[in-house]
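pls ignore typos typing on phone
copper (II) ion + seq
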Amino acid sequence: MPLRRPRAVLATLAVFGVTALATTGLLSGCTGLFGAPVISTVGEVEFGAPLAIPPLAVSTVDADGTRVFDLTADEGGTEFLPGQATPTAGYNGSYLGPTLRASRGEQVEVRFTNRLDETTTLHWHGMHLPAAIDGGPHQPVAPGASWTPRWRIDQPAATLWYHPHPHGETADQVREGLAGMFILDDPAEAALPLPRDYGVDDIPVIVQDAAIRPDGSLGFTSDGFVGKLGDTLLVNGTVGPYLDVVTDVVRLRLLNASSARIYRFAFSDEREFAQIASDGGLLSAPVPVRGVQLSPGERAEVLVRMAPGEHVVLRSELPDLGGVVGFGGAADGASDRFDVLELRAAGVLASTGSVPAALVPVERIDPGEASEVRDFVLDGTQINQQKMDMNRIDAVVTVDTTELWRVRNNMSFPHNFHVHDVQFQVVSIDGAPPPPELAGWKDTVYLPPDRTYELVMRFADYADAEHPYMYHCHLLRHEDLGMMGQFVVVEPGQDVKIEESSHDHH
Ligand SMILES: [Cu+2]
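k done
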């Protein structure tokens, strides 16, 4: 039994007409304001299972040099707890998907087949690629159908990911297990003395929360405004995982693939570690930290130094949601703590060298060059007082320009903001410069209540007046409820013409 039941209580909570439910078997402990369960698994997890490492996706290289991957989405069953089969879905397997890996400059092709019994899409989160193959809600793949996007990798080394993006259905499909990592390599990253032996000293860490009901099915412990939260962490699909560490420095690629939960990753001994990358690639220099906070969709790469023989636990400590949030924050997971992953160092550790003093130059985008300033106010589950409409284009961007987007969370609940097509830079937070860990490339950023984030981004290429990109809150319930908008990138003076056939799945 890898996991003792975490402390949670059965409570009902009326949040926007939704009821909070506790689905765990043994219920004890304390209750947050308004009755949401307060969860702590700290010290409760037995770490009885080796961390599953998603396999690297097999690829073939065509005669013209294109790297070709095959991905099939299908339903299956996964044994998260011994003897209990949980109905799940995955790519090329029963839960999650293989890690795709490609290098800057490579042409890639993904031959995707949907064997689910419902329509899905396959979105390349963080990837710079044409809108027509972005895999958003306008590229539905029907049950039994295939889809073969093909593009050139044209961005820095980074930890990206892929997941479904069908309008209104994203949260359920991701929660069932449809997600995977996409690692990009480039010469600048390869020249640095960083751990990069996949699954050995360079470890994908995909973190999701769920509640596993006694019958093995996936449930939740609370279902409030932010969405469904669970009391059990799945790390690469493993409950109660440990990792045998064999090098003196280990690189963790942290991905928050949860639909609503915000984590603040830290270690049980509060040790310092180094954040080396944010969503879109390496920072200019390692940032010494004792915690890394990730909202849904965000990634961070960190380096952790280990001593021979030691054990240390990666935890999620209380997240800093930014002041008083929601009903005291309990329904948003603000009061929850988790044991995530135990790192177990071998008695003798191979040396991977030192943590480099500098990483790669991160060219700053000058906000003074912005030819357009746009405001996005997130309120309720709307952006600028409108819900997503597949037939409405919310912003028309001219190709080869820089824009400044002022994004504001007008509520006392958490939101975040994800932009397709580009990696942006945070210019300011309520007028102040961002902290160093937010000074690199980002595609998703947490929005604390009552604050305004200025984001600068360049729309360098891929003009296409017929296919939109999305921007949206990546708390998946909010996205599904319509907290999303669409923009097209056009040639100067070009008219927008969205083809009716491109959104015929409604
Ligand atoms: Cu939101």
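The helical segments are 170-175, 187-190, 476-480. The pocket of copper (II) ion is lined by residues 415, 473, 475, 478, 483 (CB under 6 Å). more later
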